[in-house]
Design a protein that fits this description.
Layout lengths: L1 H37 L10 E2 L7 E2 L5 E4 L4 E7 L5 H8 L3 E3 L10 E6 L28 E5 L5 E12 L14 E9 L6 E9 L3 H6 L6
Parallel strand pairs: 4-5, 6-9
Antiparallel strand pairs: 1-2, 3-4, 3-7, 5-6, 7-8, 8-10, 9-10
Length: about 220
């Protein structure tokens, strides 16, 4: 009887430790996801509004940024000099990462941008720890706005979403007959077992035509 009581106590302690760990690891991510469903973004993220006479409100977009307004995503894009895991993880603490060897904003080829959907609890907290947590909610036709270093705006439209293994290097492939954007984050959310991928293509608009004059090829 005494042994059974001891085993129950041990099981209870193990259960408490497990609950604490799960809350520590996934609590922040759960709050981000819950907030998205309870309070879906309705106003585009904006840094400043300029009200001019006889002109509509203008939303100012920051340079080297990615915006997916419907998903409430707004974050800096940092360009990596290489593809070492150490460098990419360091940059992910500061925003999303445009992988080295892939296209720049609005450029010919495939611009690949990666971002965290969550991170390990013991890693130093970052403002962008859950930046792509809502990415799996992306739908066909969603607009993705990307700005270059000069602040020129390029509008991409989502054409495809898919789940791939971490070894799927084909997402980095470059097709220089297209202007494509590929976004990637870890999946299922809260793990790094697979990758969730969003593929979008550049659209033609006045905004893009104006922005492309300053494009850094």
């Amino acid at each position: 009887m005494q042994k059974i009581i001891i085993d129950k106590k041990r099981l209870f302690i193990v259960g408490l430790v497990l609950i604490f760990f799960l809350a520590w690891q996934y609590g922040g991510y759960a709050l981000v996801r819950l907030s998205f469903f309870l309070h879906p973004p309705t106003i585009p993220p904006q840094e400043e509004e300029i009200l001019l006479p006889d002109e509509p409100t203008k939303i100012i977009r920051l340079p080297s940024y990615i915006y997916i307004d419907r998903l409430g995503i707004a974050a800096p894009i940092l360009r990596s000099d290489g593809r070492t895991e150490t460098e990419i993880q360091r940059l992910l603490h500061e925003g999303t990462v445009n992988l080295s060897g892939t296209a720049l904003a609005g450029g010919v080829g495939n611009m690949v941008v990666v971002g965290h959907s969550s991170d390990f609890a013991w890693v130093k907290p970052s403002e962008y720890r859950y930046v792509f947590a809502n990415l799996p909610e992306a739908k066909f036709g969603d607009q993705v706005l990307v700005t270059d270093a000069e602040g020129n705006v390029f509008v991409y439209v989502v054409e495809e979403t898919k789940i791939v293994p971490p070894t799927a290097m084909e997402i980095l492939d470059q097709d220089f007959s297209t202007h494509r954007l590929t976004l990637q984050t870890s999946y299922p959310l809260g793990t790094a077992l697979k990758r969730f991928v969003v593929v979008a293509s550049l659209t033609v608009s006045e905004e893009i035509q104006e922005g492309s004059e300053g494009q850094d090829e």
